[in-house]
Amino acid sequence: MNKNKHKLTFIFGAGTSLAYGFPLGKGLKKQILDLNSEEILETFLADQDTPFSKSTIDKMKKAISKFSTVDEAYQSTNHKDTKKLLEQLVIWEISDKENEETLLNPSKEEKPCYEELWSFIKNYLKITPTTPFLNELINISMFNYERSLAKFFQFKLMDFFDKKVETGEMSSEERNKEIEKIIKTFGFYHLHGTWAGLRNVYKTNNTTVYGKRPNPRSFYSLNFSLFPVDDLNEDFKACLKNLETIDRVILLGCGAHERNFRNLKLIDSNIKVDLFIQNSSEKEKYEILLAKNKNVNYIINSTIKKYLKDLLAELA
């Protein structure tokens, strides 16, 4: 690794995937509340091993309606079956929004950023078609439950290696293995968890193909957790370990949730943080939250494209 290079961690919130068709917390709440109870019963309750009932659905909808987002409702209830049903419906709704066409042609109004990030990474790591793709400098974590960014990287890496496949320098199988290895170097840590079946975007035998809803009747028996919990998951722990050796954290599309910043240990540290925010009033909330950290750079009303261009020049 080039010791003169800075190690960076990008942390993405739900705001960054809005352009690719995925809802924010409030939108996810509305989608679940709009689901027909009979449809839920028919879709999820056909398996006799699941304990859900009309009563479970009513409790779940009542819990959600009191809060602005699904995860707030999830944290408020101690009813095990309500939590389990919420987890399943979140996966159901999020997997429905996976769409390769939207991923490659996102909404310009919602400020897509994946292409800009990919361009920055190629330039920062000095990657060319004739050099090995080595990454020891950039790590990616997210509070999102979905896998659109990893899928986007898969598309770009396939394009990157296609010429080598065409010329016979490597086989398709070798390319796929190389892509899998490279994607793992970026981490793609899901800090709030996700269903394990949604992790893989590169294996052709994956039972949950991107853009295709998984079988809901298989959900209940799987051990997965959504939403923040007191006990940090393995991805969160891996992210924290990585943060011990990095030079800068870049947060995009993240809300000012004290628990998230405290768990990331950004409140009481002086690690360098670049934080994207929308306006001055939002800045005031963060300044109170991160008052002890004297190395926070607030980025207001700037595009990610401009920021990454400036960051590349700064770190050159």
Description:
The protein is built from 13 helices and six strands. It is α/β, with parallel strands linked by helices and 316 residues long. The chain folds into two domains: 8-21 and 107-192 and 227-315, TPP-binding domain (Rossmann fold, 3-Layer(aba) Sandwich), CATH 3.40.50; 25-96, no CATH class. Helix 11 (258-263) links the parallel strand 4 and strand 5 (272-277).
CATH topology of the largest domain: Rossmann fold
Q: Report the biggest beta sheet as strand number plus sense, adding barrel if it closes.
A: 6 strands, parallel
State mean pLDDT (0 to 100 scale): 83
Number of strands: 6
CATH architecture of the largest domain: 3-Layer(aba) Sandwich
Give me the strand/helix succession: EHHHHHHHEHHEHEHEHEH
Q: Structural class, from helix and strand content?
A: alpha/beta
The percentage helix is 40-55%
Number of domains: 2
The parts where pLDDT drops under 50 for at least 5 residues are none
How much of the residues is beta strand, in percent? 5-15%
Radius of gyration: 20 Å
Straight-line distance between termini: 15 Å
In the CATH scheme, the class of the largest domain would be Alpha Beta
Number of DSSP helices?
Answer: 13
- What's the shape? globular
Quick one: CATH superfamily of the largest domain?
TPP-binding domain
User: Numbering strands along the chain, what is their spatial order in the largest sheet?
Assistant: 3-2-1-4-5-6
So what's the oligomer here?
A: single chain
